[in-house]
Amino acid sequence: MGINKECSSLSLLKEARERGIYPYQDDITFIAYKLLLERGAYVNQFIFPTTPVGESLLRTLYTATHTREQMNHALQQIIEVY
Known about the structure:
CATH topology: Aspartate Aminotransferase, domain 1
Strand content: 5-15%
Oligomer: single chain
Number of strands: 3
Order of helices and strands: HEHEEH
Strand order of the largest sheet: 1-3-2
Helix content: 40-55%
Radius of gyration: 12 Å
Largest sheet: 3 strands, antiparallel
Number of helices: 3
Distance between the termini: 20 Å
CATH superfamily: Aspartate Aminotransferase, domain 1
Structural class: alpha+beta
Shape: globular
């Protein structure tokens, strides 16, 4: 099962979207970004003016060079931070 489907199946996020994009409120986005980075899981954050006010996003990105172990680590960090 893919990482996004795993997050969705756990009812982890209020709206898990395809391609690893997860919506949050602005203040939560900053906190989650910092916590994930400290735990070794890099995500991109998108805030106003890239997104509407109050609709910040965190985005995960995976490539063919990521191992299953790395993806599982990222998933575990997302679960713990959420």
